[in-house]
Give the backbone structure.
Amino acid sequence: MRTENLPEKLVPEDRVAFESLLSKLALYERRFKDKWGAETTIRTIRIADVPKIVKMGYEMWEEQPWNKGITQAGIRNNNLKASLQAEGPIALIAEQYRKPLGMIWGYDLSNHGRACPYPKNLKKVLAKLSGYLSSGSYRHVIYIRELAVEPGSRRKGIAGELLDSFVELAKQEGADDLMLDTNVDNIPAIKLYVEKKHYVPAIDPRSGRELRGTTADGDITRFLHLKLK
Ligand SMILES: CC(C)(COP(=O)(O)OP(=O)(O)OC[C@H]1O[C@@H](n2cnc3c(N)ncnc32)[C@H](O)[C@@H]1OP(=O)(O)O)[C@@H](O)C(=O)NCCC(=O)NCCS
């Protein structure tokens, strides 16, 4: 695993950027006393969490069999920062004794037409989603950009609880739908969304087929959504 160059601390310019971005987040906290042995909290991320969860996200994508490599530039200008720069971001961490166990973040797509500082690959996804969303089927959609649980804490229901907390916040924001895309080969994630949480495949109204996306590496993703209203 290529972990030696990972950021342990935020460089000052990142810290300033993240501090202003994090101030936009709605405050949220849910405590679990007995569910996972020791007290566990799901809460809004703070500045001190950023290096830990960027590292965690990096290691998680490293482990994926279809991952073809994440660059240092990708780490600095990471998904989290891009998500927080978007409209209406939501970003939560699950932690036990200050150790991050998992995280989820995403943002509002209702303003999807405007120019925004997304990385190139995300622009493609958004272009595809915009075509879909402007078909009129959806009004206020929140997009889940990333969900991950650290390997030692899986199959205990943490991702399920992170998703439930995300839904709670998305409802508070008045969202009609949640949308996400996940690699077609990501069986754990697809089972979680579809079998456990009842997300359904998004259908492209033009072709009548399931909506698919392509990542920067050329991997195929499936779009899934959940109606909140
Ligand atoms: C996908 C992921 C977030 C699931 O996290 P988790 O905390 O283990 O998930 P949960 O414990 O809440 O699992 C709930 C359900 O999801 C399904 N599921 C989760 N992992 C699974 C696996 N390895 N195989 C089959 N089903 C799985 C099951 O239906 C499970 O219910 P069960 O345990 O009662 O059978 C985790 O495996 C992960 O971080 N993977 C790497 C990052 C990733 O792929 N993120 C999703 C990208 S969109």
Q: What stands out?
A: The chain has one domain: 12-227. Helices lie at 12-22, 50-63, 72-76, 79-85, 120-133, 158-172, 187-196. The two ends are 43 Å apart (CA to CA). The longest strand covers residues 99-108.
